[in-house]
Amino acid sequence: MDSEISKLNQKIGQDSLFIQDLRREMAKVVVGQEDLINGLLVGLIAGGNVLVEGVPGLAKTLTIKTLAQVIAASFQRIQFTPDLLPADIIGTLIFNPRESTFSVRKGPIFANLILADEINRAPAKVQSALLEAMQEHQVTISDSTFKLPDLFMVLATENPIEQEGTYPLPEAQVDRFMLKLNVTYPSKTEEGRILELMARQVMPAAGKIISVEQLLKARQTADQIYVDEKIKNYVLDLVIATREPEKQGLEKIKPWILYGASPRATIFMIQAAKAYAFINGRGYVTPEDIKAVGFDVMRHRVLLTYEAEAENITSEDILKNIFEAVEVP
Question: N or C end of the chain: which has fewer CB within 10 A?
Answer without folding.
Answer: N
